[in-house]
Write a structure and sequence with these properties.
With 122 residues, the chain is an all-beta fold. It contains no helices and 11 strands. Helix content is 0%, strand content 52%. The strands form 2 sheets. Strands 2, 4, 5, 6, 9, 10 and 11 form a 7-stranded mixed sheet that branches. Strands 1-3-8-7 form a 4-stranded antiparallel sheet, with no helix packed on it.
Length: 122
């Protein structure tokens, strides 16, 4: 199983980025998919999660109104559209797959990508 993130980078505060995650080696449509992030010195936290069919989404309160999660099962892809980025959004962003339903606990996710760095300058 492989999950590969892309789309990170350096952006000024107020800017936008779109993260992508492509999965292989797993029945992508059977998995809930999540985005997590980890800033230096902090624990990895859940950002967003989407159900297997895209019908249900969850967003961390800190990103509501600014981030949108979506998926395309036909191409085994997961997206995180980020608007109005803030310096506190700076972190390594990871996508993760969980068989079944979304969970807010990172320990319940089965597979992880290597991450893509997002840096927001003030």
């Amino acid at each position: 199983v492989q999950l590969v993130e892309s789309g990170g980078g350096l952006v000024q505060a107020g800017g936008s980025l779109r993260l992508s995650c492509t999965g292989s080696g797993l029945p992508f449509g059977n998995y809930a998919m999540g985005w997590f992030r980890q800033a230096p010195g902090l624990e990895r936290e859940g950002v967003s999660c989407i159900s297997w069919n895209g019908g249900t989404t969850y967003l961390n309160e800190s990103v509501k109104g600014r981030f949108t999660i979506s998926r395309g099962n036909a191409k085994n892809t997961l997206f995180l559209q980020m608007y109005n980025l803030k310096p506190e959004d700076t972190a390594m962003y990871y996508c993760a797959a969980r068989y079944g339903y979304c969970s807010g606990s990172r320990k319940e996710f089965n597979f992880w990508g290597q991450g893509t760095q997002v840096t927001v300058s003030s």
